[in-house]
Amino acid sequence: MDRFHSMRLFTRIVELGSFTKAADDLQLPRATVTHAIQQMEKRLGTRLLHRTTRHVSPTQDGEAYYERCVRLLADLEETETAFAASARPKGKLRADLQGTLAKHFILPVVHEFFERYPDIELEIGMGDRLVDLVREGVDCVLRAGELGDSAMVARRVASLQQVTCASREYLKRHGVPKSVDELRGHRAVNFLSARTGKPLPFDFVVDGAPRSVRLPGSVTVNDADAYAACCAAHLGFIQLPRYHVAAQLEDGSLREVLAKWRPAPMPVSVMYPHHRQLSPRVRVFVDWLAEVMGRAG
Prior knowledge:
Blueprint: H1 3-16, H2 19-26, H3 30-44, E1 49-51, E2 56-58, H4 60-83, E3 91-97, H5 99-106, H6 110-116, E4 120-126, E5 140-144, E6 153-160, E7 162-167, H7 168-174, E8 189-191, E9 202-206, E10 209-213, E11 219-221, H8 224-232, E12 238-241, H9 246-251, E13 254-257, E14 266-272, H10 280-296
Parallel strand pairs: 3-4, 3-5, 8-11
Antiparallel strand pairs: 1-2, 5-14, 6-14, 7-12, 7-13, 9-10
Helix pairs in contact: 1-2, 1-3, 1-4, 2-3
């Protein structure tokens, strides 16, 4: 196994935390993987990996070598693509997409991506959880909402209008609030933040300034589909991007309230590690995500 293939193997072991998973991912025999790493450590004269029965992690030297490997591999891929006129981005790309964004915007048109780049194989995960891109071997993530501090490269690709709404039946029973102050005494379906583990407040812009309101509720959820379903079941107000309840607003089963004080649009961003920014696979996929989400925004 040449040095570049050995480097690629080593980076996958670090990212997946397992010799076996890396062997499966690269379709190599387990014995070949073990031998290649032993030869690499012997050549470098240092131990690169801590091995236990359950997990593999890099040593301090392994961390430093990993960072250099990913830069070299990205540079190699970029160079080969630049000098091969007929070359197209190819290989496996792992993306983690926020679930409702994927279902509403990305998956219905993903065939367009493969028409442009038939040699790329996508492995898509969906959710809202925080993802360790490096450790989990994920190339990029698509997320909605304000981003916390991150060492990742972030590219904003859309801003989604948000609405506050309740079911027609709920408003018939409890009245329609005419101002943000009149929300007091009403009920909400609360949404649990994946970042903080706490229910999110309702946000508004009043006289040009942001204002947050917390409402009591009988149910708290952490899934957007469940959030909308509980609202449709007359359990109280919700606040979310308009696209998710556009059909219900259109047919009147849900009604928007306090439109004059809508919260600021929700940002949508793609994030990826710094060392992935030169990868042709990641670059074309991020550009395509930006194009698709630009239609939504």
